[in-house]
Amino acid sequence: MAETSNTPHVLKSQANWDALYFYQKSDVIYQLAFAFCERFIHLYKDRTRDQVIQAARSCKQNIVEGLADGVASTEMQLKLLNVARASLKELREDFEDYIKSRHLQFFVSGEPRYADMLNYCSYHNRLSDYEPFFAQWTDEQMCNYAITLCHFIDRMMMSFLKKLEQEFITEGGIKERMHRARTGYRQQQDERLKQLEAELPRLKQALAEAQAEAAKWKAAFEDLKQRALKMYYEKEEEIKRLKELLGEENL
After folding, report:
1. With left for phi above 0 and alpha for psi between -120 and 50, is residue 110 left, alpha or beta?
2. Confidence tier at 9 by pLDDT (50, 70, 90)
3. Structure confidence by residue, pLDDT tens digits, 20-49
4. CB-CB contact of 81 with 161 (8 Å)
5. Which of these, 68, 145, 174, 251, is most buried using a 10 Å CB contact count?
6. How would residue 210 be classed by pLDDT, with cut points 50, 70 and 90?
């Protein structure tokens, strides 16, 4: 039976994560964190290096995995995206600790550099917008931009999670969608069966009428056939007599 437009679906549409601003910014934050560690954190003397890179990677990769898993499981998607947020908060804390431990400055509201940073992070999402600065910014600038990006990503992800939460409340998880899809399919089958059973007496009556009509036409055909044969034989007999009569006269 062909699938109708109102047939419930089990699998959800695959999200295009590359088009989501919080994913784009998570890609920026990972590359920024890597560049920051390469420039300012010693490869062997500071374990923070690995923690920063892994936290940034965990954020980005869990976003991808969560959105991919969302095709089947909204519950798993919510869990993985929240893991991404947890890694993001860990990353932000590491950048804040770096500023505090090195006695650097946080960019604060009211400063021109804070306004410029906030404006830039608000309207730029792609890695190509930030990468040229990775070799130019000071450690203080990189930390402040990283912290700001973390705030933006977290806020965007919270909005996305709220939307997923509402979808989960209204649509349920994979088991509920499977149940609805199976129940909906069975209901369609039952409705089709009832429709066919209701049509059957009418079709049976139509068949009987057609058979009766066919029988009438068959009888009429047989009658016409017999009359035509009778006429044919009569004419044939008359032709024979006329030929015999003509033959006698010629003698």
Report:
1. left
2. low
3. 999 999 999 999 999 999 999 977 777 889
4. yes
5. 145
6. confident
Q: What whole-number distance in Å separates Cα of residue 249 and Cα of residue 237?
A: 19
The residue count of the chain comes to 251
* Residue closest to 50 by CA, chosen among 65, 64, 33: 33
Question: Can you tell me the distance from the alpha carbon of 179 to that of 8, in angstroms, rounded to the nearest whole number?
Answer: 9
Q: Which two three-digit tokens encode residue 128?
A: 């190509």
Grade residue 221 by pLDDT with cuts at 50, 70 and 90. confident
Intra-chain end-to-end CA distance of the chain, in Å:
85
CA torsion sign, 209 to 215 to 220 to 221? positive
Q: How many CB atoms lie within 10 A of CB 27?
A: 20
Counting Cβ atoms within 10 Å, is residue 242 exposed (0-12), middle (13-18) or buried (19+)?
A: exposed
Rounded Cα distance, 150 and 25, in Å: 8
**How far is residue 242 from each of residues 12, 42, 146, 239, measured CA to CA in Å?**
92, 132, 122, 5
Please, where are the H alpha helices in the chain? 21-40, 48-69, 74-101, 112-123, 127-130, 139-171, 174-250
Instruction: Give me 123's structure tokens.
Output: 């309207």
121: burial class by Cβ within 10 Å (0-12, 13-18, 19+)? buried
